[in-house]
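Same chain as my last thread, 218 residues:
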Amino acid sequence: METFKTNYLPLLFLAILAYCSILYPLLVESCNPIDEEALLKFKGGIEYGAQYQLATWIPKTNCCATWYGVECDAANGRVVRLSPFRPANPMDVDISVFVNGTLSPFLGNLTYLQVLDLFHFQENYLSNPDGLRGPIPPQLGMLSHLTSLHLGANILNGSIPTSFANLHKLQFLYLGHNRLSGSIPNIIFRSMKSLSTLSLAGNNFTCSIPSSFMKKLR
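reply #2:
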């Protein structure tokens, strides 16, 4: 009898696993409403471009399953990664995504976000006028779980928000090849204890990075 029970344990485990795989999508039928609003506000700020990618962002559908460039935490269904302009296949390095629009301050409501990748992926981006324009919303400083922020190769202007000092977990910061200007707030250097990679080239900043801070960067 003991042998009989033991032989059926693997089958029982597989049955439970299959049941859970069916049940989980039913439990997370759609976006968290706060995340969905933030993503749709961002989409609304894109005037043209990325038609294929953003066409999948349909209200009241499961953003964790069907929205291009959106990844969620399997445990709570909250958005943890946003990269809507990246090619679906990392090997498609010759594919360009032309985008024109602005950064929505509602992105600051994606409070579980760990990776925000809005790099304007296109060939010859240095001579192309397209991209995300306008200032960087200070609300991005509310993303306390953020570890990677990539806004490179756009046409963003203005200064780096002082609210970035709240991004204590940030490890990678890419702001290169925009039209950013002004000074870089010293409070950012004092607060970003985890930062290891920093890209600011191709902007119009009026100050240099402290040598003491540079030593810990890669």
